[in-house]
């Protein structure tokens, strides 16, 4: 099982969007291989997903029923293979909380840039298939390769690594959040989809 944590501030807008979208789509591609959770650095603990973020998520066919915000702490960061922060400040705060997580913590957009950098890997570098054992082996190899590609990806990435916080902002800011976040999430799903099927 690959454990991924997404992190924003309140854990009601950006990180639940990322969590629920990734869980839904990765379940479809590689069933029972991923557990996606989210947390907030200053979470509105116990709150449901923000209504407008939830509507944006519904627009791409994913529901938010049952979601409850939770606080980022030592317990929530423990045991994750990958942590995807929504801003560079969130990434830095996670690493400050646990320096050993440096190599496993990226912003979402940064990780998408890393995957783009790794798209040139020769066929056969990463094992193919969607059996849970193969998926675990593939992601272990991917995350090692990602560490080496990180610097080059950050240099080539054009634009901000952050995803804007729409909380209590106007509707166009929610649109901007989706525009910044959704392509990065889809690139993660696309990577898994490309490798989950045998050639």
TrEMBL record:
<dbReference type="InterPro" id="IPR036196">
    <property type="entry name" value="Ptyr_pPase_sf"/>
</dbReference>
<keyword id="KW-0904">Protein phosphatase</keyword>
<dbReference type="InterPro" id="IPR023485">
    <property type="entry name" value="Ptyr_pPase"/>
</dbReference>
<dbReference type="Pfam" id="PF01451">
    <property type="entry name" value="LMWPc"/>
</dbReference>
<dbReference type="InterPro" id="IPR050438">
    <property type="entry name" value="LMW_PTPase"/>
</dbReference>
<protein>
    <submittedName>
        <fullName>Protein-tyrosine phosphatase</fullName>
        <ecNumber>3.1.3.48</ecNumber>
    </submittedName>
</protein>
<feature type="domain" description="Phosphotyrosine protein phosphatase I">
    <location>
        <begin position="2"/>
        <end position="128"/>
    </location>
</feature>
<dbReference type="InterPro" id="IPR017867">
    <property type="entry name" value="Tyr_phospatase_low_mol_wt"/>
</dbReference>
<comment type="similarity">
    <text>Belongs to the low molecular weight phosphotyrosine protein phosphatase family.</text>
</comment>
<keyword id="KW-0378">Hydrolase</keyword>
<dbReference type="GO" id="GO:0004725">
    <property type="term" value="F:protein tyrosine phosphatase activity"/>
</dbReference>
